[in-house]
Amino acid sequence: MEEKKEASIPKTPLVPGTDTAAHPLVELTHVEKHFGALHVLKDINLTVNKGEVLVVVGPSGSGKSTMCRTINRLETIDSGDIRIDGKTLPQEGRELANLRAEVGMVFQSFNLFANKTILENVTLAPIKVRHMDKTDAERLAMDLLARVGVDSQAAKMPSQLSGGQQQRVAIARALAMKPKVMLFDEPTSALDPEMVNEVLDVMVELAHEGMTMICVTHEMGFARKAADRIVFMADGRILEQSTPDEFFEHPKTERAKDFLSKILTH
Ligand SMILES: Nc1ncnc2c1ncn2[C@@H]1O[C@H](COP(=O)(O)OP(=O)(O)OP(=O)(O)O)[C@@H](O)[C@H]1O
Ligand SMILES: [Mg+2]
Protein backbone atom coordinates (compact mmCIF):
# COMPACT_ATOMS: atom_id res chain seq x y z
CA MET A 1 0.00 0.00 0.00
CA GLU A 2 1.23 3.45 -0.86
CA GLU A 3 2.44 5.48 2.05
CA LYS A 4 0.33 8.53 2.71
CA LYS A 5 2.21 11.80 2.56
CA GLU A 6 1.55 14.33 5.28
CA ALA A 7 1.17 17.09 2.75
CA SER A 8 -1.59 18.81 4.63
CA ILE A 9 0.63 19.86 7.54
CA PRO A 10 2.12 23.22 6.69
CA LYS A 11 5.82 23.57 7.43
CA THR A 12 7.06 26.44 9.56
CA PRO A 13 9.02 28.69 7.21
CA LEU A 14 12.72 29.12 8.05
CA VAL A 15 12.55 32.85 7.62
CA PRO A 16 9.32 34.49 8.76
CA GLY A 17 7.26 35.53 5.81
CA THR A 18 8.88 33.24 3.24
CA ASP A 19 5.88 30.96 2.98
CA THR A 20 4.19 31.01 -0.36
CA ALA A 21 0.64 31.55 0.91
CA ALA A 22 -0.76 35.08 0.59
CA HIS A 23 0.76 37.09 3.38
CA PRO A 24 -0.76 40.53 3.92
CA LEU A 25 2.03 43.04 4.57
CA VAL A 26 0.03 46.23 4.36
CA GLU A 27 -3.63 46.35 5.30
CA LEU A 28 -5.78 49.46 5.33
CA THR A 29 -9.28 49.00 6.71
CA HIS A 30 -11.99 51.68 6.55
CA VAL A 31 -9.39 54.45 6.61
CA GLU A 32 -10.80 57.98 6.76
CA LYS A 33 -8.86 61.23 6.65
CA HIS A 34 -9.84 64.90 6.54
CA PHE A 35 -7.73 67.99 6.07
CA GLY A 36 -10.07 70.44 7.82
CA ALA A 37 -13.32 70.36 5.87
CA LEU A 38 -11.71 68.44 3.00
CA HIS A 39 -12.47 64.71 3.04
CA VAL A 40 -9.33 63.30 1.39
CA LEU A 41 -9.51 59.56 2.14
CA LYS A 42 -12.93 57.92 2.07
CA ASP A 43 -13.34 54.39 3.38
CA ILE A 44 -10.03 53.14 1.99
CA ASN A 45 -9.74 49.35 2.09
CA LEU A 46 -6.58 47.92 0.61
CA THR A 47 -4.49 44.82 1.18
CA VAL A 48 -1.02 44.41 -0.27
CA ASN A 49 0.44 40.93 -0.07
CA LYS A 50 4.09 40.05 0.29
CA GLY A 51 5.89 40.36 -3.03
CA GLU A 52 3.05 42.24 -4.69
CA VAL A 53 3.67 45.33 -6.80
CA LEU A 54 0.85 47.83 -6.67
CA VAL A 55 0.66 50.85 -8.92
CA VAL A 56 -1.62 53.63 -7.72
CA VAL A 57 -2.97 56.01 -10.35
CA GLY A 58 -5.61 58.71 -10.42
CA PRO A 59 -6.19 62.38 -11.07
CA SER A 60 -4.32 65.08 -9.19
CA GLY A 61 -5.72 65.67 -5.72
CA SER A 62 -7.37 62.24 -5.50
CA GLY A 63 -5.46 61.33 -2.32
CA LYS A 64 -2.66 59.10 -3.66
CA SER A 65 0.16 60.83 -1.78
CA THR A 66 -1.91 61.17 1.37
CA MET A 67 -2.67 57.46 1.33
CA CYS A 68 1.04 56.64 0.97
CA ARG A 69 1.95 59.03 3.74
CA THR A 70 -0.55 57.47 6.14
CA ILE A 71 1.06 54.06 5.60
CA ASN A 72 4.19 55.13 7.45
CA ARG A 73 2.37 57.68 9.56
CA LEU A 74 3.77 60.80 8.02
CA GLU A 75 0.06 61.63 8.19
CA THR A 76 -2.35 60.59 10.93
CA ILE A 77 -5.74 59.11 10.12
CA ASP A 78 -9.13 60.06 11.59
CA SER A 79 -10.46 56.51 11.83
CA GLY A 80 -9.92 53.02 10.50
CA ASP A 81 -6.90 50.83 10.88
CA ILE A 82 -3.53 50.44 9.18
CA ARG A 83 -1.46 47.31 9.78
CA ILE A 84 2.07 46.60 8.66
CA ASP A 85 2.81 42.88 8.70
CA GLY A 86 -0.09 42.30 11.06
CA LYS A 87 0.77 45.04 13.54
CA THR A 88 -1.37 48.14 13.94
CA LEU A 89 0.61 51.34 13.48
CA PRO A 90 1.31 52.77 16.92
CA GLN A 91 0.61 56.42 17.64
CA GLU A 92 4.14 57.46 18.51
CA GLY A 93 7.40 56.61 20.25
CA ARG A 94 10.03 53.96 19.68
CA GLU A 95 7.51 51.40 18.52
CA LEU A 96 6.38 53.73 15.76
CA ALA A 97 10.01 54.40 14.75
CA ASN A 98 10.62 50.66 14.52
CA LEU A 99 7.55 49.98 12.46
CA ARG A 100 8.21 52.99 10.26
CA ALA A 101 11.69 51.63 9.55
CA GLU A 102 10.00 48.63 7.94
CA VAL A 103 8.47 50.90 5.31
CA GLY A 104 10.94 52.51 2.90
CA MET A 105 9.79 55.63 1.13
CA VAL A 106 11.08 57.41 -1.96
CA PHE A 107 9.54 60.76 -2.86
CA GLN A 108 9.41 62.92 -5.93
CA SER A 109 12.12 65.21 -4.57
CA PHE A 110 15.24 63.33 -3.67
CA ASN A 111 15.67 64.68 -0.15
CA LEU A 112 19.20 63.45 0.37
CA PHE A 113 21.11 65.19 3.15
CA ALA A 114 22.93 67.91 1.21
CA ASN A 115 25.84 68.20 3.65
CA LYS A 116 26.64 64.48 3.74
CA THR A 117 28.38 62.31 1.19
CA ILE A 118 26.47 59.71 -0.79
CA LEU A 119 27.95 56.97 1.38
CA GLU A 120 27.01 58.81 4.60
CA ASN A 121 23.49 59.34 3.30
CA VAL A 122 23.07 55.59 3.01
CA THR A 123 24.84 54.56 6.24
CA LEU A 124 23.24 57.15 8.53
CA ALA A 125 19.96 55.42 9.38
CA PRO A 126 21.37 51.87 9.65
CA ILE A 127 23.93 53.19 12.17
CA LYS A 128 21.56 55.47 14.11
CA VAL A 129 18.34 53.47 14.01
CA ARG A 130 19.49 49.90 13.51
CA HIS A 131 22.68 50.39 15.59
CA MET A 132 24.71 48.78 12.87
CA ASP A 133 28.48 48.78 13.17
CA LYS A 134 30.03 51.46 10.89
CA THR A 135 32.10 49.00 8.84
CA ASP A 136 29.10 46.73 8.30
CA ALA A 137 26.92 49.70 7.39
CA GLU A 138 29.50 50.87 4.84
CA ARG A 139 29.78 47.42 3.33
CA LEU A 140 25.99 47.21 3.04
CA ALA A 141 25.81 50.74 1.59
CA MET A 142 28.47 50.03 -1.06
CA ASP A 143 26.67 46.84 -2.01
CA LEU A 144 23.37 48.69 -2.42
CA LEU A 145 24.98 51.61 -4.25
CA ALA A 146 26.51 49.08 -6.65
CA ARG A 147 23.13 47.48 -7.20
CA VAL A 148 21.62 50.80 -8.24
CA GLY A 149 24.73 51.61 -10.29
CA VAL A 150 26.16 54.57 -8.39
CA ASP A 151 28.90 53.02 -6.23
CA SER A 152 31.51 55.07 -8.07
CA GLN A 153 29.84 58.21 -6.68
CA ALA A 154 30.05 57.18 -3.01
CA ALA A 155 32.49 59.90 -1.91
CA LYS A 156 30.66 62.76 -3.67
CA MET A 157 28.12 65.19 -2.28
CA PRO A 158 24.49 64.95 -3.53
CA SER A 159 24.74 68.22 -5.49
CA GLN A 160 27.47 66.66 -7.63
CA LEU A 161 25.11 63.97 -8.90
CA SER A 162 22.44 64.08 -11.60
CA GLY A 163 18.79 63.85 -10.59
CA GLY A 164 18.58 60.25 -11.74
CA GLN A 165 21.68 59.32 -9.78
CA GLN A 166 20.34 61.08 -6.68
CA GLN A 167 17.05 59.25 -6.94
CA ARG A 168 18.88 55.93 -7.22
CA VAL A 169 20.83 56.86 -4.07
CA ALA A 170 17.50 57.62 -2.37
CA ILE A 171 16.34 54.10 -3.29
CA ALA A 172 19.58 52.57 -1.93
CA ARG A 173 19.19 54.61 1.23
CA ALA A 174 15.67 53.30 1.77
CA LEU A 175 16.79 49.71 1.05
CA ALA A 176 19.59 50.00 3.61
CA MET A 177 16.96 49.78 6.35
CA LYS A 178 15.90 46.40 4.95
CA PRO A 179 12.28 47.48 4.67
CA LYS A 180 9.48 44.98 4.25
CA VAL A 181 7.70 47.26 1.83
CA MET A 182 8.78 50.16 -0.36
CA LEU A 183 6.56 53.15 -1.14
CA PHE A 184 7.33 55.26 -4.17
CA ASP A 185 5.49 58.55 -4.63
CA GLU A 186 6.08 59.75 -8.20
CA PRO A 187 9.80 59.00 -7.98
CA THR A 188 10.48 59.99 -11.58
CA SER A 189 8.25 62.99 -12.09
CA ALA A 190 10.90 65.56 -11.13
CA LEU A 191 13.52 64.00 -13.40
CA ASP A 192 14.70 65.05 -16.83
CA PRO A 193 13.18 62.64 -19.36
CA GLU A 194 16.46 60.93 -20.17
CA MET A 195 16.91 59.95 -16.52
CA VAL A 196 13.50 58.44 -15.98
CA ASN A 197 14.39 55.00 -17.30
CA GLU A 198 17.48 54.51 -15.17
CA VAL A 199 15.29 54.90 -12.07
CA LEU A 200 12.42 52.80 -13.46
CA ASP A 201 14.92 50.04 -14.34
CA VAL A 202 16.01 49.86 -10.70
CA MET A 203 12.35 49.68 -9.64
CA VAL A 204 11.61 46.91 -12.15
CA GLU A 205 14.59 44.96 -10.85
CA LEU A 206 13.40 45.38 -7.26
CA ALA A 207 9.97 44.15 -8.29
CA HIS A 208 11.50 41.09 -9.95
CA GLU A 209 13.47 40.37 -6.80
CA GLY A 210 10.20 40.08 -4.91
CA MET A 211 10.11 43.40 -3.07
CA THR A 212 6.63 44.42 -1.96
CA MET A 213 6.01 47.80 -3.56
CA ILE A 214 3.36 50.51 -3.64
CA CYS A 215 4.13 52.94 -6.43
CA VAL A 216 2.30 56.13 -7.29
CA THR A 217 3.39 56.86 -10.82
CA HIS A 218 2.22 58.19 -14.16
CA GLU A 219 4.65 55.91 -15.96
CA MET A 220 2.17 53.62 -17.64
CA GLY A 221 4.91 51.56 -19.31
CA PHE A 222 6.23 50.71 -15.87
CA ALA A 223 2.71 49.99 -14.65
CA ARG A 224 2.10 47.53 -17.47
CA LYS A 225 5.50 45.90 -17.08
CA ALA A 226 5.82 45.62 -13.31
CA ALA A 227 2.42 45.94 -11.65
CA ASP A 228 0.51 42.98 -10.32
CA ARG A 229 -2.40 45.26 -9.60
CA ILE A 230 -3.49 48.77 -10.50
CA VAL A 231 -5.37 50.80 -7.95
CA PHE A 232 -7.34 53.69 -9.39
CA MET A 233 -8.24 56.52 -7.00
CA ALA A 234 -10.51 59.47 -7.56
CA ASP A 235 -11.95 61.96 -5.03
CA GLY A 236 -10.43 60.14 -2.06
CA ARG A 237 -11.87 56.74 -2.95
CA ILE A 238 -10.48 53.60 -4.49
CA LEU A 239 -12.74 53.14 -7.48
CA GLU A 240 -11.04 50.21 -9.20
CA GLN A 241 -8.51 47.52 -8.40
CA SER A 242 -7.58 45.24 -11.25
CA THR A 243 -4.75 43.73 -13.25
CA PRO A 244 -2.96 46.08 -15.66
CA ASP A 245 -4.57 44.36 -18.67
CA GLU A 246 -8.06 44.69 -17.21
CA PHE A 247 -7.49 48.27 -16.15
CA PHE A 248 -5.98 49.55 -19.38
CA GLU A 249 -8.16 47.53 -21.77
CA HIS A 250 -11.46 47.41 -19.85
CA PRO A 251 -11.70 50.16 -17.24
CA LYS A 252 -14.99 49.77 -15.41
CA THR A 253 -15.85 53.28 -14.26
CA GLU A 254 -16.41 56.45 -16.26
CA ARG A 255 -13.82 58.20 -14.08
CA ALA A 256 -11.15 55.68 -15.03
CA LYS A 257 -12.10 55.81 -18.72
CA ASP A 258 -11.88 59.58 -18.62
CA PHE A 259 -8.54 59.49 -16.76
CA LEU A 260 -7.07 56.99 -19.22
CA SER A 261 -8.26 58.93 -22.25
CA LYS A 262 -6.41 61.97 -20.90
CA ILE A 263 -3.11 60.33 -20.01
CA LEU A 264 -2.86 57.92 -22.93
CA THR A 265 -3.41 60.49 -25.66
CA HIS A 266 -0.42 62.61 -24.67
N1 LIG B 1 -1.14 68.99 4.41
C1 LIG B 1 -2.28 69.25 3.77
N2 LIG B 1 -3.14 70.16 4.27
C2 LIG B 1 -4.32 70.42 3.63
N3 LIG B 1 -4.72 69.83 2.49
C3 LIG B 1 -3.89 68.91 1.97
C4 LIG B 1 -2.62 68.59 2.55
N4 LIG B 1 -2.02 67.64 1.78
C5 LIG B 1 -2.87 67.40 0.76
N5 LIG B 1 -3.98 68.15 0.85
C6 LIG B 1 -5.14 68.11 -0.05
O1 LIG B 1 -5.64 66.78 -0.02
C7 LIG B 1 -6.06 66.36 -1.33
C8 LIG B 1 -5.30 65.11 -1.71
O2 LIG B 1 -3.94 65.44 -1.92
P1 LIG B 1 -2.85 64.40 -2.36
O3 LIG B 1 -1.55 65.10 -2.33
O4 LIG B 1 -2.98 63.17 -1.54
O5 LIG B 1 -3.31 64.06 -3.84
P2 LIG B 1 -2.55 63.28 -5.01
O6 LIG B 1 -3.53 62.29 -5.53
O7 LIG B 1 -1.26 62.77 -4.49
O8 LIG B 1 -2.33 64.41 -6.11
P3 LIG B 1 -1.10 64.64 -7.15
O9 LIG B 1 -1.35 63.68 -8.28
O10 LIG B 1 -1.27 66.05 -7.58
O11 LIG B 1 0.17 64.38 -6.42
C9 LIG B 1 -5.80 67.55 -2.25
O12 LIG B 1 -7.00 68.26 -2.39
C10 LIG B 1 -4.78 68.37 -1.50
O13 LIG B 1 -4.87 69.74 -1.81
MG1 LIG C 1 0.74 63.20 -4.99
From TrEMBL:
Location of this chain's protein in the cell: Cell membrane
- Write the Enzyme Commission number(s) for this entry: 7.4.2.1
A single cellular component GO annotation: plasma membrane
Topology relative to the membrane, per the entry? Answer: Peripheral membrane protein
Q: Which UniProt keywords apply?
A: Amino-acid transport, ATP-binding, Cell membrane, Membrane, Nucleotide-binding, Transport
Q: In terms of one coarse class, where is the protein primarily found? A: membrane
> What EC class does the entry list?
translocase
Name listed for the protein in its UniProt record: ABC-type polar-amino-acid transporter
Provide the taxonomic classification.
Bacteria, Bacillati, Actinomycetota, Actinomycetes, Bifidobacteriales
